[in-house]
Design goal:
single chain, eight-stranded mixed β-sheet, alpha+beta
Length: 164
């Protein structure tokens, strides 16, 4: 009887693990971002590129700490088809976001989420930084919360850029 219970548990756990590995990637929500320079960028516009959508705030210590790496990653990979959209949280004062963007010369799209609709669409994001890596077909490859390993992140970007 004990062997049967163990065997059933192994099969159940293998099935659960297989579901996580083989499940289809989730499509990124079809949202349009309002960029700080007055433009609009939709997820549809970004199809064909690997995209990092990063929710952040000017008062988030980890966000600010990560920003130089986010800039470096954008500069490194954008010629190969990588795009970054840094989405400022609803509570972040737009003048703070604009000041930070200008003084740090952020090279990628910075968007304001003044009504919280983008955060809601991406699964009700409330914690910063929360980032989503999205493949060329508009599917979420990975979700990052807080700090993450740069080497693993770069490997994910390179794999996504190499994929057709």
């Amino acid at each position: 009887m004990k062997k049967l219970v163990v065997a059933v548990m192994v099969v159940v756990l293998a099935g659960i693990a297989g579901w996580f590995v083989l499940r289809p990637a989730q499509a990124a929500p079809d949202v349009t971002f309002a960029s700080i320079d007055g433009g609009k960028v939709s997820m549809q516009d970004l199809r064909g590129k690997v995209v990092l959508v990063k929710f952040w705030a000017t008062d988030c210590v980890t966000c600010i700490k990560q920003m130089p790496d986010t800039i470096a990653d954008y500069n490194r990979y954008s010629p190969k088809g990588f795009q970054t959209v840094a989405v400022a949280m609803q509570y972040d004062p737009p003048n703070y976001v604009l000041n930070y963007t200008q003084t740090r010369k952020l090279p990628f799209t910075v968007a304001l989420d003044t009504q919280g609709k983008a955060a809601q669409a991406f699964g009700d994001v409330r914690l910063t930084p929360t980032a989503f890596l999205i493949d060329k077909q508009g599917r979420i490859i990975k979700r990052y919360l807080g700090e993450y390993d740069p080497k693993e992140f770069h490997a994910e970007i390179e794999k996504a850029l190499a994929a057709g």
